[in-house]
Amino acid sequence: MRALPVGDRALLVELADGAEAQALHAELLRRRATGSLRVREIVPAARTVLLDGLDEPARVGAELPGWEVPPLPARAEAVLEIPVRYDGPDLADVAAHWGVPVAEVARIHSSAEFRVAFCGFAPGFGYLTGLPGRYEVPRRATPRTAVPEGSVALAGPYTGVYPRASPGGWQLIGSTDVVLWDHARVPAALLSPGVRVRFVADTAPSGSTPARSAPESR
Hints:
Layout: E1 2-6, E2 10-14, H1 18-34, E3 41-44, E4 48-52, H2 57-63, E5 79-84, H3 91-98, H4 102-111, E6 114-119, E7 126-129, E8 144-147, E9 151-155, E10 158-161, E11 166-168, E12 171-175, E13 196-201, E14 212-214
Parallel strand pairs: 5-13
Antiparallel strand pairs: 1-2, 2-4, 3-4, 5-14, 6-7, 6-13, 8-11, 9-10, 9-12
Helix pairs in contact: 3-4
């Protein structure tokens, strides 16, 4: 763990990997909630966590390496279910990379429980982890100039859902009608760091399957 000063009141904490970043993010949120840490914003990324608006950044930076950060805890909230039609144009390529039949891609992907590691790229876009390492896939050699809104995609260790049409180089395995970003909703983003997600294979007609929270017995 390394804490680097950013301006007068912020720190960028570098970690060894995504799992450490997620665990530190959870611990920082816990300490802020109990009042033992005063900070305005806590922003996780792939291997870093930004703390912005610290009262005493020098003290926090000196103490951070000595913290005992427990493993990522399970959240008490229900799992958010996102219905997916596994109809993406890159299904065959992903199946070939995994060494499985095309139909197995949907089964493997929908059997995993995911967690939003961090958000970025576009409003409402979450980087979700949960697939075992052997299912990592490379980005496309040539990005698409336009990826449809609602596309469910894979790249490296992550799953993501495009909240709006945009260019992109991820492997497209499916599509959903769930709205990831809605200005009229509070909060506007459906996904935020730490949220648990499960993708559910959906055969219903387009436009008829909103996201829902699954009971904890799932």
